[in-house]
Write a structure and sequence with these properties.
64% of the residues lie in helices and 3% in strands. It has a two-stranded antiparallel sheet. The radius of gyration is 20 Å and the shape is elongated. With 233 residues, it is mainly alpha-helical. The chain has two domains: 77 residues, Arc Repressor Mutant, subunit A, CATH 1.10.10; 134 residues, Four Helix Bundle (Hemerythrin (Met), subunit A) (Up-down Bundle), CATH 1.20.120. The termini are far apart.
Length: 233
């Protein structure tokens, strides 16, 4: 009889728990920079993508600080959140995966059903968001409003409720990492263009283009928000 290999469920949680153990035992002390990603993944015997997800979870819990262009640093005990990072059961990748399932369809529905007033609300939210990005301001609430306007315009209250719940979790992630993860000027320009592409597709009443544009935008968000830090070796 041939047996199937047993896959480790939610491997990133096991990685996070091991890193917490190493921090609590003093192997990694407050202020220390963790080993380079490839070295740490090799030492733990895990993939780099699983390690990145674990590090994002640790950042959400306040155990580490991710500094773009520098690396991952252990936080001092006084700066940590009350809840241990390993107890954070929802990872950034978990939320993004569900957003990728739901929000492209919300955009397609909006392209079919949005009223003139609802499109104007999207335009207003987009104008505020793009102005903030050009001014190098962090306004996650403006981003959230744009996406909520799209969900509302689809005419399905259940989808609107799901999108709103996902954004509540995503905002928690943003707040946990906003001080750690800087969005580059190039990424901001791309994000403005991506939001505009979604808006234009909805204006035209093109559900296929709206779905595609939203999926492209969220894929870019994932590459930025769950990115590996560029490390100095």
């Amino acid at each position: 009889m041939r047996l199937k290999p047993i896959a480790a469920p939610r491997l990133y949680l096991r990685i996070a728990e091991e890193l917490v153990r190493l921090i609590d035992s003093g192997t990694f002390k407050a202020g220390d920079r963790l080993p380079a990603e490839r070295d740490l993944a090799a030492q733990l015997g895990v993939s780099r993508s699983s390690l990145r997800e674990a590090l994002s979870s640790l950042a959400m819990g306040g155990r580490v600080q991710i500094r773009l262009g520098s690396g991952v640093y252990v936080r001092a005990a006084g700066s940590r959140k009350a809840r241990p990072a390993a107890e954070t059961r929802t990872s950034p990748l978990d939320v993004l995966r569900v957003r990728l399932l739901v929000e492209p369809e919300a955009a397609a529905l909006a392209a079919r059903h949005a009223s003139r007033a609802q499109i104007k609300a999207m335009e207003s939210a987009y104008a505020r968001l793009s102005a903030a990005m050009r001014a190098n301001l962090a306004l996650p609430e403006a981003d959230r409003k744009f996406h909520r306007c799209i969900a509302r315009a689809g005419g399905n209250p259940a989808i609107e409720m799901v999108v709103d719940g996902l954004w509540s979790q995503w905002m928690d992630l943003h707040n946990a990492r906003s001080a750690d993860l800087s969005v580059t000027p190039g990424r901001k320009r791309d994000s403005i263009d991506e939001h505009h592409a979604v808006l234009e597709a909805i204006r035209r009443g093109d559900p296929i283009a709206a779905r595609r544009a939203m999926r492209r935008h969220l894929a870019s968000v994932g590459r930025q928000r769950i990115a590996k830090p560029r490390e100095r070796d």
